[in-house]
Amino acid sequence: MLKFISRLTLITGVFFLLGLMASCADKKDSEQIDSAQNQTESIAERPLALVIHGGAGTIKRENMTEEMEAAYRAKLQEALDAGYAVLETGGNSVEAVRSAINIMEDSPLFNAGKGAVFNSLGKHELDASIMEGQTLNAGAVAGVTKIKNPIDAAILVKDSTRHVMLSGTGAEEFVSQYGITMVETSYFDTEKRLEQLHRAQGKEKVVLDHSGVLDTTPIDDHKYGTVGCVALDKDGNLAAGTSTGGMTNKKFGRIGDSPIIGAGNYANNLTCGVSCTGTGEFFIRTLAAHEASNLMLYQEKTVDQALEEVIRQIQELGGDGGMIAMDKDGNVAWDFNTAGMYRAYRKSTGEMKIEIYEKTK
Ligand code: ASP
Known about the structure:
Strand order of the largest sheet: 4-3-2-8-7-1-13-14
Shape: globular
Bound molecules: aspartic acid
Largest sheet: 8 strands, mixed
Order of helices and strands: HEHHEEHEHHEEEEEEHHHEEEE
CATH superfamily of the largest domain: (Glycosyl)asparaginase
């Protein structure tokens, strides 16, 4: 009898233990399911967003034909959709920036890639840069003459060298080994840009520089057209890219703000991603893009307030131009002290906007 009771106790004990283990396993499973659900929910809730610009300047309604406006709007929309499609299908922010910028680089409407302006020698020298907000890794090319899409070259410098910026023939020789599309320099020649060069040279005035040497300074025709993009991907990573032909009638060898990390382009997941357009010298002197990030980091400004402050500083120095930015939560900002700026954004909230002329709040 005693034997029977102890056997029964043993069997009950074993069943009890098995039950306990099963219930623990169930609990663990359900905890795992819960955490996976939470993760999926938080990923689903993470905003995706993309903002682009196509340059700032004296862009006024009265100077624009209906056809021109429609062409700009359509191209901005195409760039926005191409970049956003990358984010929507799980691509990263750098690839989204590349896609959006490639569309604008391939269009003669903007001063980047195909539509690049002429320098004072009647040639094209293109600049571009890219930066990742998570790693602060960055790449840039300056003064390149044969690379069809300079933003692709900037990404290659970021990913495949230990450097941040390559210039001129060195940059071209390096990227040509990686299958980047190279073109004849005449690919960048367009009638519109040639006219702008002739107009600028016709208007050129002669001034004395600080050393007393005669210098010819172009009268700025206040039309830019540099392109830029900031994107926020599903992992919460920001990236910013900028691509340009520089300024019409710029001196041979002149490098603007666009390929200079911190001046015309910057991204930091702690603060924001920024891309600039305008008279590059002022954006270099103020380190405009990095300044906007610092204002958010050290003075707790919002992304809107940060851009407003930087544009104020540029204005105070006598410069002009515009900036786009996005913070880590997908809040988009843009500001400029010119008449207009080609600009657009699209977000996973469904919001989308394309604007050209004066600011509307
Ligand atoms: N920022 C560019 C540069 O100075 C010009 C532009 O924005 O169009 O090269």
